[in-house]
Design a protein that fits this description.
This protein is α/β, with parallel strands linked by helices. The protein has nine helices and ten strands.
C-alpha cells in the first residue's frame, strides 16, 4: 500500500484548515479580522478551502482607522463582494467622535493603539465570541508566546502568564459569558511560508506588496509614505523611491523597503535574503521594547 505524504506547505495548510473547522465547531459567532494585508487575506483564503463548496461561515471584521492605504480599502471591498460575505466595520473615527478615545498629537501621532477600544466595542456590540486573526509567531516576540486559541477575559485582556495548554492539537474554547477568544490559524507559518503559499496558490494580493514608485519621507531610517495625514518637519524632504511594503498597517506608520521585487518570484527571493523582521519598519512597534505585548494585554490584535 502506498503512503501519502504532504509537503511542508500542505501540512501548514492542513493544520490551518483544521483550526478553522475547530472554530466553527466550538463557537457561536466567530469573525475573521480582515485588514487587507497578506496574512488576513491568507486566512480568508484558507477559510474558503476549509468550507468549500459552501460559503465562508464567518463574517469579516475590519477596524478602520481612517488612515488606511486607499489600495487596501479597495481590495477589501472587492474581496467582500466576490465572496458574498458580511463585512463589519468598526470606525476609530466614530470612537474619537464619541469620546471613547482621544486622538494622539504630534508628528509621530498614530491611531494604531486606538484600534483596541474600537475592536472591543465591536466585539461586544455584535456578541462575537471568537475573532480569527492572521498573527504569526515569527513576527514579534509577544506573538511568539501566544497560544493558537488565545483566551481573552471579560475586559478583552490577554494574560500571557495564564494561558491554556495546547497538547496534541486539542484546543479548549470554553469561556464564560462576556469572554472571547482570538484564534490564529497561521500561527506556525513564517513570512517565507506565507509568500511561498501565495505564489503556489496564486492568491491575489494588494499592489502595495509589489515594488512601485511612491512619494516617501525618510523618518527614523524608514521610508514612510507621503499622505495627507503625515505632518512634515521643515527639514524633511519628499522624494520618489521604488519601494514595496512587507506588512500593511496605517499609512502613517507603515515603512517601505527600497526594492525591485515586482513579481511573486522576486518577492520570494528577496524575503529569503532579508535579515530583519517584516515589522521592523513599523514605527508603532519601535515605541518601546514591549510595545506589542503592552497593546495585546489591553486587547489589541
Amino acid at each position: 500500500m502506498s503512503k501519502y505524504y504532504l509537503n511542508y506547505l500542505k501540512e501548514l495548510e492542513s493544520e490551518a484548515i483544521y483550526i478553522l473547522r475547530e472554530v466553527y465547531a466550538q463557537f457561536e459567532n466567530p469573525v475573521i479580522l480582515f485588514s487587507g494585508g497578506k496574512d488576513s487575506i491568507l486566512v480568508t483564503y484558507l477559510a474558503q478551502k476549509a468550507f468549500y463548496p459552501a460559503k465562508i461561515p464567518f463574517s469579516l471584521m475590519h477596524v478602520d482607522t481612517g488612515h488606511n492605504f486607499p489600495e487596501t480599502i479597495k481590495f477589501r471591498d472587492d474581496i467582500v463582494k466576490d465572496l458574498g460575505v458580511k463585512l463589519i466595520i468598526g470606525s476609530v473615527q466614530d470612537s474619537i467622535d464619541g469620546g471613547r478615545v482621544s486622538e494622539e498629537r504630534g508628528k509621530n501621532a498614530t491611531r494604531n493603539a486606538l484600534q483596541t477600544t474600537t475592536l472591543l466595542d465591536e466585539i461586544e456590540a455584535h456578541n462575537i465570541d471568537c475573532a480569527i486573526g492572521g498573527g504569526r509567531r515569527d513576527e514579534e516576540k509577544a506573538r511568539a508566546k501566544e497560544r493558537i486559541f488565545s483566551h481573552r477575559d471579560e475586559f478583552g485582556q490577554w494574560d500571557p502568564k495564564n494561558q491554556r495548554p495546547e497538547l496534541w492539537n486539542i484546543f479548549n474554547g470554553q469561556h464564560f459569558q462576556g469572554e472571547h477568544f482570538r484564534v490564529f490559524p497561521i500561527s506556525n507559518w513564517t513570512e517565507m511560508d506565507v509568500w511561498n503559499y501565495i505564489k503556489l496558490e496564486n492568491i491575489p494580493i494588494p499592489s502595495l506588496y509589489f515594488a512601485h514608485e511612491r512619494e516617501v519621507v525618510n523618518r527614523g531610517g524608514t521610508w514612510i509614505p507621503n499622505s495627507e495625514f503625515l505632518i512634515l518637519e521643515d527639514y524633511e524632504q519628499v522624494v520618489t523611491k521604488k519601494i514595496r511594503f512587507r506588512t500593511l498597517g496605517d499609512i502613517t506608520i507603515t515603512g517601505g523597503d527600497e526594492s525591485d521585487a515586482d513579481t511573486l518570484e522576486k518577492i520570494v527571493i528577496e524575503v529569503a535574503s532579508i535579515r530583519h523582521t517584516e515589522r521592523g519598519n513599523r514605527s508603532d512597534d519601535k515605541r518601546s521594547e514591549t510595545a506589542m505585548e503592552d497593546r495585546k494585554r489591553q486587547g489589541y490584535f
